[in-house]
Design goal:
The complex is a heterodimer of chains A (about 240) and B (about 110). With about 240 residues, chain A is mainly alpha-helical. Chain A contains 12 helices and no strands. Chain A is globular and about 55 Å long. With about 110 residues, chain B is an all-alpha fold. In chain B, helix 4 (about 75-90) runs antiparallel to helix 5 (about 95-110). The chains are: A mainly alpha (about 240), B mainly alpha (about 110). Chains A and B meet through helix 2, helix 3, helix 4, helix 5 and helix 6 of A and helix 1, helix 2, helix 3, helix 4 and helix 5 of B.
């Protein structure tokens, strides 16, 4: 598994990222379809995917826009979905912080769930030079991000052809649940998700989708506190 | 997500550009501005749970009170959500979970 040159690292990145295209394609396709359903044209759907390049937040924004939520609430909720990107950014900083600013800016734009996950694992496991790390990252970007744009367009074109009887309204919840489920790998994650659901349902009466804000803040705190609690119980042995 | 109430184009573009800039900002903030300085543990600890804090809260009302039924809880959608979650937790296979959830929904709507 040792990668010895930037070229080798790039190819390794491409290979590691290939399985993720199976997740990214249908998700982008679905976004295109849902966007058309919400009344966006092909160009608007594509612009959304190019400008934002973050699936879950694009879906969230579209959903809230369709519900006629106030612009500020739409932005705040969709950005909250993307707060994890700040964590990605922080976690890659020790590995890529010495790259030139323009490179870091480009990496930042292409920092999506899949490229981050692959890079973070690789950089933790192997000692690579900075140029190998960057090459590996660009390798992971290559099959994933262009596909995100292309499949959005395909979805937007196909979207108009889907018969009205298909319950597309539920494509989004099912996709989100399927994405969240594998994240529930520690007690803290389970607590955060549970608190999020409970507060969102409990505060659903609040106007402007503010219930979601309450739920997000409460759940984040609950997750962090649970983590502290678990670590304390485990004791200082580790 | 029915297209009854069209999204005003102005608002759409404001959200798109605002979300694009904001998302880039979040991705750039540490990588670009902080450099390789260490970050406080409490901050990282909270950031770790943001996705799992937001998405369930976004989904729960859509599952309990689907817009397609005018907000009345509906067995096929509840079953689809349960199957998706169950398979997602046990298999961690995203595509399998989505496929099974969709199949459950189709079956449920046909049955009920």
């Amino acid at each position: 598994m040792a990668t010895s040159s930037p070229r080798g690292a790039f190819m390794q990145g491409v290979r590691d990222a290939l399985p993720f295209t199976l997740v990214v394609s249908p998700f982008a396709l679905l976004f295109g379809v849902v966007a058309t359903e919400a009344g966006l044209n092909v160009l608007e759907a594509l612009s959304f995917s190019v400008v934002v390049i973050a699936g879950a937040s694009q879906f969230a924004a579209l959903q809230l826009l369709s519900e006629n939520a106030p612009t500020l609430i739409v932005l705040a909720s969709a950005l909250a979905v993307n707060l994890r990107m700040a964590m990605y950014s922080a976690s890659l900083t020790p590995h890529l912080g010495k790259a030139p600013l323009w490179q870091r800016a480009l990496v930042a734009y292409f920092l999506v769930d899949q490229t981050y996950a692959l890079a973070a694992v690789k950089f933790e496991r192997e000692r690579l030079t900075l140029s190998e790390r960057l090459a590996y990252f660009w390798g992971t970007v290559t099959p994933i991000c262009p596909l995100w744009y292309v499949m959005t367009v395909v979805g937007a074109l196909v979207g108009t052809a889907i018969p009205a009887g298909v319950p597309l309204d539920f494509a989004l919840p099912i996709t989100f649940i399927a994405l969240i489920a594998p994240m529930l790998r520690t007690l803290a994650h389970v607590v955060a998700a549970g608190v999020s659901v409970a507060l969102a349902v409990g505060f659903a009466f609040l106007p402007y989708n503010l219930g979601l804000m309450v739920a997000a803040l409460g759940a984040m705190t609950a997750g962090a506190q649970t983590e502290v609690w678990v670590e304390r119980r485990r004791g200082p042995a580790e | 997500m029915t297209g009854d109430a069209a999204i005003p184009p102005g608002e759409l573009w404001i959200v798109m550009i605002g979300l694009g800039l904001g998302s880039f900002g979040l991705r750039f903030v540490f990588l670009g501005l902080v450099g390789d300085r260490a970050l406080p543990a409490w901050l990282l600890r909270h950031l770790r749970y943001t996705t799992v804090a937001v998405l369930p809260g976004l989904v729960a009302p859509m599952v309990l009170w689907p817009s397609a039924t005018g907000g009345t809880p509906e067995p096929a959608r509840l079953a689809a959500a349960a199957v998706t979650l169950g398979l997602g937790v046990t298999t961690k296979n995203v595509l399998l979970s989505i496929g099974s959830g969709a199949a459950t929904l189709g079956l449920g709507l046909w049955l009920f």
